[in-house]
Amino acid sequence: MTVAEIAPKRAKQAPTPDTLWEAFALAQEKFGPIMKDTKGARGKYAPLDAVLEMARPILNECGLVLTQPPYIEGDTLMVRTAVVHKATGEMHECSYPAGLLTLQHQQLGAGVTYARRYSLLSILGVFPENEDDDGEKAGAAGGQSSPSTSPTRQQQTNASQAKKADVWPRFVEKLRSFTDLDELERWWSDASTQRAVDAMPGLWPEQAAEEYEKKQEALASAGAP
Asked: Are strands 38-40 and 43-45 parallel, antiparallel or unpaired?
């Protein structure tokens, strides 16, 4: 018996596609569901590690590499998300702002995590299960569609008036003043805070929720062992 006969046979690995888009299409066929299991400002969401756990092995299996390096553009820290085809070097990429460089390191760290998560979901073309549960659903029982997310002229006018009244700067200053996660969450869940956020014009309530989640992640990271 020869050595070749004794040696364990290696499983033949399927050849990877020849181009970036062929490989990317194959990966998208294999992507599974992403569960929203982390509590956020307005319901549960899928954290970055859950998205990576689902997507990265499949990308690698299809001959694709994922990179998400931060870089500086002007006075802003950015995150560049790229899917690279190993065989050809072809690249599919996008960028997302993580925050101004004047922010504290913990805030920038939370911003980087936020930017990585949102840009990764976008570039892969995947969405967590029941993604629309946090807002108005597109179809109600009577077949009504959800209102447009584009601000109307009246909303833009209200937003301009609120900006002149320093509503947004005061909100951000208050939000960033918290150093304790429990105090932050009590303040956010308080009825008066929620009324103030809901009364904000245009798309500001959604932006306020995003700012809260960034601060929440920053404080949670700071308090982690």
From this structure: antiparallel
